[in-house]
TrEMBL record:
Record organism: Chryseobacterium profundimaris
Name of the protein in its database record: Ferritin-like domain-containing protein
Gene3D superfamilies linked: 1.20.1260.10
C-alpha cells in the first residue's frame, strides 16, 4: 500500500473516541508482534544525561523490547504529557487566552492516548501502571508554570521527542495491524503538536540539523543525531545541502533512551 495513502487514512483523530469498538479487535493481539509504539517523551538535561538516573515509574532500569513493556513505557510518557498540559491550563495567568485553545486541544489528545493505552494493556490481561509523581522542574532546572516561555520550551521538547520516539518503534509493530494503526495515528497527531508549538515559539515547523531552534542547551539530547544526512546510503546533503537534507528526514529515538530521558521528570 502507498505509505502516503496509509498515513492519510490513519490520521483521523476520531479513532480515540471509539476505543471500545476498536479494542474488540485486540482479542488476538498476543499472537502478533512482541513490541509496541512508544509515545511522547519529554526532554533530557545534558548534565544529567551523563549521570546514573533512577528509572522511576518503570519496572526496572532497562527498556525491554516486549509488547507489554513497550506499552507500559508509552503509558508513563503519555501520563507525563497529559499531566503537564493539565497543570499548565489550570495555572491562572500562565497561558495567554490566545493560546489556550491550542493547549486545550492538545491536552484532550494526550488524555485520549492515556485512555487508549490503559485499555489496550487491560485487554492483554496486564494491569496498567499507575501514574507516577512528576517533577516538571527536573529538580529545579526549569520553572514552566511560572514562566510561559519556559512552558513553551518544554512543550516543544516534549512534542519533538515524542515524534522521534514513535518512529523508533515503528518497525516493531508492523506485524500487528491494530497496534500499527494506533501508533501511526498517535504519531501523526504528535507531529502536528510539535509543528504547532514550534511555530508558537517563532520556529520553523521542522528541525534542521541538531538545532532545535532557540532552545536552551539543556534540551540538546532531544535533538542529538538530527544532523544526520545519510539515508540508506544516500547523502542528502550532496543534493540539497546539509540543513535541507537533514530536515527532510527525522531521526529515531530508542526505547531505552526514551526511558532515561523520561526518568529525569519523575520523582
Amino acid at each position: 500500500m502507498n505509505i502516503l495513502k496509509l498515513l492519510d487514512k490513519l490520521s483521523d483523530d476520531k479513532f480515540f473516541t471509539k476505543e471500545a469498538s476498536r479494542l474488540e479487535t485486540l482479542t488476538n493481539i498476543s499472537a502478533f508482534g512482541k513490541k509496541a509504539a512508544v509515545a511522547a517523551v519529554p526532554l533530557g538535561l545534558g548534565a544529567l544525561m551523563t549521570t546514573s538516573t533512577k528509572a522511576a515509574g518503570f519496572t526496572d532500569n532497562t527498556y525491554k523490547n516486549t509488547l507489554t513493556d513497550a506499552l507500559q513505557l508509552a503509558l508513563v510518557l503519555e501520563y507525563l504529557e497529559s499531566e503537564y498540559y493539565t497543570i499548565g491550563l489550570s495555572t491562572a495567568g500562565l497561558i495567554p487566552n490566545a493560546d489556550r485553545t491550542v493547549f486545550t486541544q492538545i491536552a484532550k489528545h494526550e488524555s485520549a492516548h492515556v485512555t487508549f493505552l490503559k485499555n489496550t494493556l487491560t485487554s492483554l490481561g496486564t494491569t496498567p501502571g499507575a501514574k507516577p509523581t512528576f517533577d516538571f522542574t527536573a529538580g529545579g532546572a526549569f520553572m514552566p508554570f511560572t514562566d510561559y516561555n519556559q512552558f513553551l520550551v518544554l512543550a516543544q521538547a516534549f512534542e519533538d521527542t515524542g515524534v522521534r520516539a514513535y518512529k523508533g518503534q515503528a518497525g516493531n509493530v508492523m506485524s500487528n495491524k491494530t497496534v500499527l494503526q494506533a501508533a501511526l495515528q498517535i504519531h501523526s497527531v504528535e507531529a502536528r503538536h510539535a509543528s504547532q508549538v514550534r511555530r508558537m515559539r517563532a520556529n520553523k515547523g521542522w528541525i534542521e540539523l541538531a538545532d532545535g531552534g532557540n532552545m536552551p542547551a539543556a534540551t540538546d539530547p532531544v535533538y542529538a543525531g538530527e544532523q544526520n544526512t545519510n539515508q540508506a546510503g544516500f547523502n542528502t546533503a550532496t543534493a540539497f545541502g546539509a540543513a535541507a537534507g537533514s530536515a527532510a528526514y527525522d531521526e529515531v529515538l530508542s526505547g531505552s533512551d526514551a526511558q532515561t530521558i523520561a526518568s529525569l521528570f519523575i520523582v
